[in-house]
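Quick review question:
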């Protein structure tokens, strides 16, 4: 990859996916990774995976499932000593 190692690319991919930077920086990361087919492929696969997880996390669980989970949380002691 021109100008950086694949280890650097991995850090940039994480920064890109976590949206820890401005849009200009994201564009710069994308351009840099485009110089290395392996790194760019990893970015694209990772981006699709993260997008899919975000989509799934927005879906609401059925009300009966939410009620069971909340009931289980209420009866489960927190911490080993039961202190909250």
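Suggested answer, residue by residue:
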């Amino acid at each position: 990859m021109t100008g950086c190692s694949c280890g650097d690319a991995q850090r940039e991919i994480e920064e890109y996916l976590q949206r820890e930077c401005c849009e200009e920086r994201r564009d710069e990361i994308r351009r840099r990774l485009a110089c290395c087919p392996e790194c760019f492929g990893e970015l694209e696969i990772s981006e699709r995976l993260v997008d899919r997880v975000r989509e799934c996390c927005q879906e609401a669980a059925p009300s009966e499932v939410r009620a069971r989970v909340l009931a289980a949380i209420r009866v489960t002691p927190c911490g080993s000593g039961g202190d909250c």
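Why it works: The chain has a mean pLDDT of 83. The helical segments are 6-17, 23-33, 37-58, 63-75.
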